[in-house]
């Protein structure tokens, strides 16, 4: 990747952060909590986006950011009051700014009409009268025309902040040399007289450097007039006393000469004249109104290099004005200048190509397999567990695991990056549906593997949309129901038993089960006489082809149903479930593995095949006694576990390894819990123990197989399938328990 | 001798851009993320030239420049102000604080190196 491209990537990453800061600040302002520092931070965010965008020539983004920044600067300066109404407008502007950023990135488009309208709205805030006296001719069209930013954008590489109507004028220096005179003077000789003031040195400018710059334009002959220099004993080392008269021969024009003095403008007396002037005349011209200066010996032109030491006048003493700054400068170092998320330069952060990390993770995966293989071989040789070799292997296992954890930690990231996009979504969906919604987020710092994060966005987006569109009532309905007209949607992330759980809940009306059931029947998804629990009815919304919206709304009617969400979540090895209480709202719970690379599993034998059951799903393993197994229906049976009954599922039968189930008492039973909390007892022939396995996706190489989550390679080199527990339970419900599926919760209630 | 340039900017993008341009021109680059940090880095690296942004959290560019100028050890270091603001008032304030020169963003590497050459011995 080309270096500039790499910086561009950084820029867009930074934009994400800045947009998040911007939104956070604006939300605080909207709640009336925006102090000056908040406004400053908000300003800086937009300012930095604009700055970076300018560097990459991202014109539309620069233009919009400029208008935005102009208003923020006015708020910062106090000329536009910081109100809650303003914050609402700024929030919408931040959304459009985010669109511009995405568009600049090549992701999506900007609604240019909306952008122009917003720019005009922002401009209105800055200048409500639209036509103040002075800048009227420029400002008026800006406000009048919809495409305000386009006009400003005409010259925007150096834009004025305070005045929207400002049109950039390049830093031109008026060329005073009269054309007529130029004709008369035969040579390209200039006389440049410079008398530095002490301020020039105070700002760390250098006469020697000015002379060097002049020398770049052409050969120079510099003469020092030191007549004003006091005797050494009277010399104020911080003051300036000398004058330089430079004869310059150059093909360049006067503006080029003046440009040399751009930085010292005002800090020295400067006189530039065409033609050769005597030193006396030059000094006289420079001095004009001040005291006359004695003529100087036109000393031999000192080479520029030699001049340097002479010109080394030290900067003046610090002015008292800057005392406050000094105080700031010596601020205690304990107060860290570097916030955690903005790592300091240099050593504290290294950037690594993600591919290298992926490669490392792959290698560690292989190492885990290799280590397992080694352990198995050693076991086969019957080496005593107390032997040095076996103990060394144990240590190796420990180390391997630590390496694996450390490597995974490199890729772990807080879900914040996904969460921070959601407030905007909620605002938009609420606007579109006419609902009032407030988003509450929790657990943004919950960490999860990068590969998982990247794929969280879509399901969360969909669940939130769904929560607002279908979950929340309209403000009127809410009022009628005695609720706050503003609905609350909660988005939370947490770690639970080795998985990350995302919850999206609303305080809306909950699922209308009668209607859901009716629709499912009408659409032919279920038989009308099917007996279902509340929970099962709720889960009908995940069936393909189900949509509860009576009319397809703008928001949810995109042809993507909850079934798609469910499938995408399942593809990640995750599960989704819903619980709902009428009148009080619904909660979607999404659970995903923390990483897509490794898994703790129980290795079992089923009908001669080796399978891995994810440990996270296993509650316990047991050997059932004959009296604990009870038949249910023609083929099914249940297992009594303490106070309840759970359905027995023969994994071999479900996966088609065998036709006839052995009696559960002949094997072992794994009591598993599905994501929805339903339990089942999986029957296997034997347990080989727990092992960490590296997940190898089946789908990439083959295709999705129901009941199988993925595959892995065991220590002995054999391939084993990883069981998808939930799918296995569901398979059994659908097939094994026909025609009426055994209902675990019903049975448990017996 | 390789000259060291300290860049002070809260934007990572801008720091990277500066680094690319300066390193490409043979400068040694040290960075700081705001004025306060800049002062710390300053004492650790003693740069030959400082390039600073104006709008920064904690200690802004004005405050940073003033703080450098009151320190006897650092006050002779040339400081270039890097900012999108061509607004004369802001530039004037930066100069009053003690800025040696300025660079208007967006800059190209030539413009940047040119400005450094003009202020650095």
UniProtKB/TrEMBL annotation, chain B:
Domain Response regulatory: 4-120
Keywords associated with the record: Phosphoprotein
The UniProt record lists the keyword Phosphoprotein: yes
Protein origin, superkingdom: Bacteria
One protein family per Pfam: Response_reg
Any single GO BP term: phosphorelay signal transduction system
InterPro entries, per database record: Bact_response_regulator, CheY-like_superfamily, Sig_transdc_resp-reg_receiver
Statement: the UniProt record of this protein carries the keyword Protein transport: no
Residue positions where 4-aspartylphosphate is found in the record: 53
Protein name: Chemotaxis receiver domain protein cheYI
Taxonomy of the source species: Bacteria, Pseudomonadati, Pseudomonadota, Alphaproteobacteria, Caulobacterales
